[in-house]
Amino acid sequence: MPWGYWDPFEEMERMRKRMQDLFHRFGETLEEETYGFPLDISETDEDLIVRAELPGFNKDEISIKATENSLDISAEHKEKKIEKTEKILRAERKYGHVRRFVTLPTEVNLDNVDANFENGVLTIRLKKAKARKVKEINIE
What we know:
2 domains; about 40% strand
């Protein structure tokens, strides 16, 4: 390459490879440490209903934290011990921590929350907060 010659396409290819490497490493970090799980949010006139798929977890491994406008669901299970007489031929089950933090579409009342875990599906029912009244203030 002659001195002073600059190929913008070559530079773009180097940048693409660096970005691809960065995203690849980021994806590995997510899989090793923390990754998400699918969830649905639906509503009735009075409730918000959150359903999260957490197969393979027990209810005592799940933590739920809520504010008036957000929900933080996490679950963690430790690696299971293998009997000394067993020899692992294939191991695909992941152990570790999963977490989802979502902003709720409407404020909820934290005094009336119901959570149920059945067949790997966590169902959380949150009562919607009553709409706050707006008071008009006259200027004297």
